[in-house]
Design goal:
Length: 287
């Protein structure tokens, strides 16, 4: 486990170095693009492996290309110092816990189970403080407080439960609810950069994000991506934004333990749809 952590830390240091170089005028994007993408997807695979072993380390870097990062820093990060701080914040909730664990393991012997618990606890302490530093364009959203949205509902789910998501989506569509469900939007999504598009769909363009929580949900790349965006947007809302539905007893890192949820095994599709309608009606009355 320590070797895996050291490898991840090394890759993070290297990718941050590349981002700093190109964003502070010390490197050309085209010269570093291939190396950046190799590191970017390697880090994603490593984080996925950790999630499959019950360790959630949040992936806050949404820029699969340095050109995507270029667009972001040109729009919102005016000084070299702001860019350095932002790059640091992207990987802080991963790098800090790893550093703490590696420091602890160097001073005493830690068995694998203890190491996993220690890493998870350090990560949990770091994530809330760090995420508030990330994605300033999302934090300053002008659409967050508006009374109309492109979508009333966006569905987030693991592929293993598409049948449930599809049943909910069809019932909501029959009732005229504006919702984002990927199978309904294939032509609209065709050709789009989904990483950029989903930052709006699971963020400022949607009234509520309905999450189907299952054991598969936290270990999938796209659901992790969607939930990270939604969790960040939730901080901008004056009222609830993420509406969790439990398929099983899986706990989702980053979702407060006191958040109320629906139990799908008790309410079924009909109960979910009914409660969504009530939630939307109350929202419309209060807005």
């Amino acid at each position: 486990m320590t070797e895996q952590l050291e490898k991840l830390k090394k890759d993070i240091t290297e990718i941050q170095g590349i981002m700093v170089k190109v964003s502070t005028g010390r490197g050309n994007i085209d010269d570093f693009e291939d190396e950046y993408r190799i590191l970017y997807f390697s880090i994603k695979e490593q984080l996925k492996t950790f999630r499959e072993n019950g360790i959630y380390l949040p992936d806050l870097n949404f820029f699969s290309s340095l050109w995507d990062f270029y667009s972001h820093w040109k729009a919102g990060l005016k000084t070299y110092q702001e860019r350095r701080e932002y790059i640091r914040s992207l990987y802080k909730p991963i790098d800090d816990p790893i550093t703490q664990v590696l420091t602890t393991s160097s001073s005493r012997t830690i068995n694998p189970n203890e190491l996993v618990k220690l890493l998870s606890s350090y990560s949990y302490k770091n994530i809330e403080d760090t995420e508030s530093e990330v994605a300033p364009s999302m934090k300053k959203s002008k659409l967050t407080e508006q009374s109309t949205f492109e979508y009333d509902i966006a569905l987030s789910f693991a592929g293993e439960h598409r049948n449930i998501a599809e049943s909910i989506a069809h019932e909501l569509k029959k009732l005229g609810i504006s919702l984002f469900y990927d199978n309904f939007e294939q032509s609209k999504l065709w050709g789009k950069r989904l990483s950029k598009h989903f930052q709006e769909i699971y963020g400022q363009k949607t009234r509520f994000v309905v999450v189907l929580i299952s054991k598969e949900y936290p270990i999938k790349d796209w659901t992790d991506f969607e939930f990270t965006i939604a969790r960040e947007e939730a901080k901008n809302r004056k009222s609830e934004f993420i509406l969790p539905i439990r398929i099983d007893d899986t706990l989702i890192f980053g979702l407060p333990s006191d958040v109320a949820y629906l139990d799908f095994n008790k309410v079924g599709v009909e109960g979910v749809v009914k409660n969504i309608l009530i939630k939307l009606e109350r929202f419309n009355l209060s807005s």
